[in-house]
Amino acid sequence: MQIMKKKDDLMCHPSDAEAWKHFDRIHSDFAIETRNVRLGLCDDGFAPFCKSGKTYSCWSVILTPYNLPPEICMKAPYMFLTLIIPGPHNPKKLIDVYMQLLIEEL
C-alpha cells in the first residue's frame, strides 16, 4: 500500500489541518498517546418519500476513525453508521438528545 505524502498546500489527511495541530498543542497528553482514537462525525438528512408529497426526513450519523492512513481513512469499510434518526422533521437543536446513547457508549 502506497502512503500519500502531503503536497505543499493540499490537505491529504485531517492531520494536515491547522485545527488538528492546534488540538495537539492544547491537549498534548491526548496527542502523545498513539492508541487514542480520533473520530470524525458526519450527519446528513434526506427525504426518502419526497415524490409522494409527504414531508418526512431521515438523518444518518456516521463516525470515521481518523487514526487510519490517508488511503483508507475515508473509504466505506471504515465509515460506521451509528445512528438513523427518522421523523417528520429535521432534528435541528434536538440532535444531541438522539446522540446521548452514542456519546455514553464512546
**General form:** elongated
The assigned structural class equals alpha+beta
How are the strands of the largest sheet arranged? 1-2-3
What fraction strand?
15-25%
Number of strands: 3
Q: Can you tell me the residue ranges where pLDDT is under 50 for at least 5 consecutive residues?
A: none
Q: How would a crystallographer describe the biggest sheet?
A: 3 strands, antiparallel
* Tally of helical segments: 4
Query: Strand-and-helix sequence, N→C?
Result: HHEEHEH
Overall helicity:
25-40%
Strand and helix layout:
Blueprint: H1 18-26, H2 28-32, E1 39-46, E2 57-65, H3 70-73, E3 80-87, H4 95-105
Antiparallel strand pairs: 1-2, 2-3
Overview of the molecule:
- InterPro entries: Transposase_21 (IPR004242).
- With about 110 residues, the chain is of the alpha+beta class.
- The chain has a domain of about 70 residues.
- Helix content is about 25%, strand content about 25%.
- It contains 4 helices and 3 strands; from the N terminus they run ααββαβα.
- The mean pLDDT is about 80.
Question: What would you say about this model in short?
Answer:
Helices cover 27% and strands 24% of the residues. It contains 4 helices and 3 strands, in the order H-H-E-E-H-E-H. It has helices at residues 18-26, 28-32, 70-73, 95-105; strands at 39-46, 57-65, 80-87.
